[in-house]
Amino acid sequence: MIPARIPARTRIRPLLATVALCGSLTACTAGAVGAPRATGDPKASGAADAPAKVTVVSPAAGRTVTVTATGGTLTTVKVVDAEGGVLAGRTGAGGTSWISGRKAVPGTSYRVEATTRTSGGKETTTTSTFTTAEAARVNKLTLAPGKDTTVGVGQPLSIVFDRPVTNKAEVEKQLRVTTSNGTVGSWGWLTDWSGKDRVDWRPREYWKPGTKITLDATLNGTDSGGGWFVRDYRTGFTVGSAQVVKVDLDSKRLVLERDGRAVRTIPVSGGTPGGDKRSWRGTAVLMAKEGTINMNSETVGLGDAYDKMVDWSMRLTWSGMYAHAAPWNAAYFGRANRSSGCIGMSDADAAWFYGQVRPGDPFEIRGADTKGTVAEGNGYGAWNVSWERWRAKSAVTR
Is the domain 17-131 a CATH 2.60.40.3780 member? Predict the structure, then answer.
């Protein structure tokens, strides 16, 4: 897989402008920078009765909105975008300032409505609008696993970004994971096999069956450093039964364990020893059940070694390691490793096994003659990193 060329990063220069709120929807003029003019007899109006002066700092995208009052306090502040979305916030101590809880979004118009009260009890409502500049570049993301899916106990929550993420800590702070049972876990930043930035959330140990996981990615208005996010993301999934596949390439056996008990042992043939056709070792997580697919050796750097349709294909890495039916290797099942790196088995065993496993099931692979450990970005190899090392991959200091 060859990553797409990423253009040079262009940053949006944040510009701060102070906008005075006017007492009507008409534009403010240079002579109307204060609060709306008080009505009534000017001789009867003391300083305490003059309307409070309200100003709003309208930011460039990616910054919070701040509203302040002089000569009074803020009783209510409402910031709404053109589609009716509310930018919520809170009033500070003393009631003279308000700050939004979320950041302003690129290319969005906002209407600000603030009500103030003076010490003499005079209430005034003022309004104004501001618009943020369009984003020069937008960052998007791809989430795994899919929404409302049921996965195995080894499945991490994985996010791949379209554009580079240099503001990793800022992005990570907006990613909130909740679980139904208080599972302890951590984000870890890595480079995906595609070359793109990626962040995974994995628990300290395999998930407990039945755990429900929810991600709230409140990224709208966040600058990743390589592009702006212009929407939020939300997804959730459930963990199924506790299945672990144990593959011993020395004994050429695969064992499917469910709830700690062996369900079935299958004779297999792994990667051929002594060269590039060896299998990976360590923990690989079942990425997808792909059925019948074309496998071409040129796509994995093995020249013209093979080009065939393969049944019951189950992807384990981006680099091309699968578990699948391999009837052409029938003489070697349980006897010798003679594949091109995959874990092959008979048609009957592969069909049964394919029906039992689900994406997210961990494959714990061992063997004396393998070509290395599955890397974190080569599929889901996070389980090959110790918990301490994994937590150190987080961009947020704990």
Answer: yes
Tokens coding 337:
């490793």
| Pairwise CA distance, residues 208 & 165, whole Å | 31
346 CB contacts (<8 Å, ≥6 apart)?
267, 325, 326, 327, 330, 333
Residue ranges of domains in the chain: 17-131, 141-240+387-391, 243-367
Alpha carbon of residue 81 to chain centroid: 25
d(CA 321, CA 309): 15
CA pair distance 227, 337, nearest whole angstrom: 47
Digitized pLDDT (tens) for each residue of the chain, 398 residues in all: 334 433 333 333 333 333 434 333 222 322 223 334 333 444 444 444 688 899 987 666 678 899 999 999 999 999 999 999 999 999 999 999 999 998 898 999 999 999 999 999 999 999 999 999 899 999 999 999 999 999 999 999 999 999 999 999 999 999 999 999 999 999 999 999 999 999 999 999 999 999 999 999 999 999 999 999 999 999 999 999 999 999 999 999 999 999 999 999 999 999 999 998 999 999 999 999 999 999 987 777 777 777 899 999 999 999 999 999 999 999 999 999 999 999 999 999 999 999 999 999 999 999 999 999 999 999 999 999 999 999 999 999 76
Distance CA 18, CA 66 (A): 10
Q: Which CATH number fits domain 141-240+387-391: 3.40.50.150, 2.30.42.60, 2.60.40.3710, 2.60.40.10?
A: 2.60.40.3710
Q: Do domains 17-131 and 141-240+387-391 have the same CATH topology?
A: yes
- Does the bond joining 42 to the residue before it have cis omega, within 30 degrees of 0? no
**Distance between first and last Cα of the chain:** 35
The secondary structure element, H or E, covering residue 352 is: helix 347-356
